[in-house]
Amino acid sequence: MIARVGRWLFLGGFVAIIAAPVYIVIVSTVKDNAQLFTNPIGLPSPIVLSNYVRMLTESSIDTSFRNSVVVTAAAVVLTLLLASLASFGITRLTRVSGGLLFGLFILGLAVPAQVNIIPIFLQFKSLGLTNSLVGLIIINIASTLPISVFILTTFFRQLPPDMFESAVLDGAGYLRQYLSIALPLSRPALGATSIFLLVIVWNDLLYPLLLITEQSKWTLPRTLLGFQGEYLTDYTMIFTGVIIASMPMVIMYVLLQRFFIAGLTAGAVKG
Amino acid sequence: MRHPARSPVAYLFVLPAAIFFAAFYLYPAVMTLRYSVTDWDGYSPDIRFVGLSNFTRLFTTDIIFQQALGNTLRFMLVVVILQTFFSLMLALLLVRNTRGTIALRTLYFFPTILSSVSVGLIWLFIYDPYFGLINETLRRVGADGVQPNWLGNPAIALYALALTQVWFHVGQMMVIYVAGLQQIPAEVFEAASVDGAGTWDKFRRITWPLLLPTTVLVMAYTTMQSFRAFELVWSMTQGGPEGATEILATLIYKTGLLNFQIGMATAQSVIFMLLILSVFWIQRRAAALAVR
Amino acid sequence: MTQPVRFEGATLTYPGATIPAVNQLDLAIDEGEFLVLVGPSGCGKSTCLRMLAGLEAVTAGSIHIGARDVTNVAAKDRDIAMVFQNYALYPHMSVAENMSFALRIQKAPRAEIDRRVREAAALLDLTDYLDRKPKALSGGQRQRVAMGRAIVREPQVFLMDEPLSNLDAKLRVQTRTQIAALQKRLGTTTVYVTHDQVEAMTMGHRVAVLKDGLLQQVDTPRALYDTPVNRFVATFIGSPAMNIFQVPIVDGGVDLAGWHVPVPREVLSRASSGEVLLGVRPEAMRFAAEGAPMTVTLVEELGSDTYVYGTLARSDGSLDDVVARPWGIASPAVGATVHVAPQDVYLFDGAGAQVRLAAGG
Fold this sequence. Notes:
The structure holds three protein chains of three kinds.
Chain A: H1 2-28, H2 33-38, H3 50-58, H4 61-92, H5 95-110, H6 117-126, H7 133-157, H8 161-169, H9 174-185, H10 187-202, H11 206-211, H12 220-231, H13 235-255, H14 257-269
Helix pairs in contact in A: 3-13, 4-5, 4-7, 4-9, 4-10, 5-7, 7-10, 10-14, 12-13, 13-14
Chain B: H1 9-36, H2 53-60, H3 63-93, H4 99-109, H5 116-126, H6 133-140, H7 157-182, H8 186-194, H9 199-227, H10 230-236, H11 248-258, H12 262-291
Helix pairs in contact in B: 1-12, 3-7, 3-9, 4-7, 5-10, 7-9, 9-12, 11-12
Chain C: E1 5-12, E2 22-29, E3 34-38, H1 45-53, E4 60-65, E5 68-69, E6 80-83, H2 95-105, H3 110-124, H4 139-152, E7 157-161, H5 169-186, E8 189-194, H6 197-203, E9 206-211, E10 214-219, H7 221-226, H8 231-236, E11 243-250, E12 253-256, E13 259-262, H9 265-268, E14 275-280, E15 285-288, E16 292-301, E17 306-313, E18 319-324, E19 337-342, E20 346-349, E21 356-358
Parallel strand pairs in C: 3-8, 3-9, 6-7, 7-8
Antiparallel strand pairs in C: 1-2, 1-4, 4-5, 9-10, 11-12, 11-14, 12-13, 14-20, 15-19, 16-17, 16-19, 17-18, 20-21
């Protein structure tokens, strides 16, 4: 009996802890600041849409949105391409050579790219890749290749080898094996990895902070950070920005929950 | 002689990714090591070799660095302990796959998909000392006197950030624990019941040992995330007040990119790298010992 | 156009191993022949097959398909089709797509592909399943798809790696005859690997017995049964296995538990030591009024056959196990003592390769 009550208290407490901030954020965006001070926790009355209007007309959030879409789409697609090719190649090599190359990429897992932000900045500066979306795309690819190669290689290794041997005898070279057999069969792994990458790149603050100074090239997280300085304690506006910036992820999460949860733990559990 | 079913074309498949990785990860990594033994400022044409003096300075006279090192470790410890504990509790309570548990799990997982900035901004409001959610609620329930300055008080700021970090990712770790728990066959628990084991016994002698690999994974993942907490800290306190929330990542950023002390910043990076590697090594050893 | 196959001194030693997995294999397979490679686990039979397919690299020696030396030819260029033990079907492709995969790679004309797939499907009774995916098929059907994939290629050689081992016993017997009939009809040179000596004996034109990487004997099934070249082949082929007794040489013959078995002096002189191995097939253990005394321990009545298990006592008291297959007489009771007089005995050298000294007389 006590256990039962305790369980519900604990879970309910966590619901409150997790949901309350989210509730506050959503509800605050349709209040004005006066309401926020006098009635921070309650429901808005009246509902105020001016925050959204202001945000969408005055701020540059739409440019940032576009930048985020471009960088995320390009980085995810290219990383998947490079990583799936590399993982397939690794599984076709001998255990020694394949293991060495695999280990090379795994180095990237142990030591996150954050440790090298200084040389990355200097290198990109000398290559003219600062202040460019291309630079952002490149660094996002490089930093997510290790985990992608890890997940996909683990997956490819589980495919039955005699299926590929049969394909070899049928006359298939590596490219044909990759395109006709490995890729179609790896849809679940590719799906999980793409979600994983999507969330990482979309939400990344470090690289735009590091590499981009021109406001027109900021991605959403960087713009949000800028709101802190711009709107100071105008939390209703800040939260409006948060909502707009998080919308795509939230919508996808609501629609594809199972895949999100699978994808974001794919890198972990499969290890 | 060459293997008739293999071909060096396989290397071509790995080549593009390898080039990318070598150029934009390995090369900067090597450069970190190189610059750490200089006193370069990022601009002047000559780069002077200064041996290990950066490192000695960091460990002897640089109290800011030492403070950041301590903060990083303390942050990591608090986050790992709290997050592991709570995620395990939640997972144990929600291990069955009913409509209700799945709904709750989906809710708890939600914060993970937000960006660190969003989380940081939300919690800036919650921690606001004047009308933030916490202090406002405390006033409402009559505890007027308890109005801590969560992020402005150097004594508690780091712990406030740690709590935010736990809020951020506890759902993700919970899901990993659920997966680990669901892999334990039900018969094992049934056999234990038949053998007379009670709830606590079952946990201590069956669940916990069988979950050790998962726990190791959760701890490793949490540790890695806590080292990456740069974005969260930067969104909320930028390392203040008075360096109370300065972690190695933020210090490196400031030293290298705001003060242009490239040599010192890369030296800090090297120590950061060594710290991460040794923490992982320790975790692996502990895991191997525990699993035995 | 099918071709003969030849292994010349083919050897494969895995890196780091001291003993070769396949040791100096010399084997010639005729055009259109159905050759079975048989032997216990680890004898190297699958490795031989894979060497021929090009899935393993040959360490020494050569392999020829027809006039071509294919030792260094890439697997995909050898014009060989293989049926794998676990079928290796492509799970995301339909039966028709699985079967046409190789032809599509060769960019064969559409009409030709359709024709071949249809004909093979008709041969294998798969016509109704052409659009299904492997997971919607039974084990037997999947096995036929694997065969269909090989047939469609019209290759120079068929390779089969224990294709029946994943089927249940009844299906296995059925499919065995189907495969043999199919091969006869298509006339393609076939190399078939199995560990089941019944399959080997019933399906092959000739059977090659391997042990520890070495070819023991290659012969027709009848010849292997009647004239095994050594003790291993003698006991491997035939079920229940041939009885083997270690017996001392006496004047004019050998002594089996007190019973004198006559052996020509000329044969005895070829023995390398004073003890030889006496081999007697179960059906050659005649129950007689006079013979070696056998204590019956177990009687198996199978309806058409009866197997009697028992022991023979040696002079020093130790016991040898015996299996006899009597016919035309009543089964003895357990515990009774019957007298067995071996007929058509085999003699094997007691040492070394234990080669046959004499057979069946």
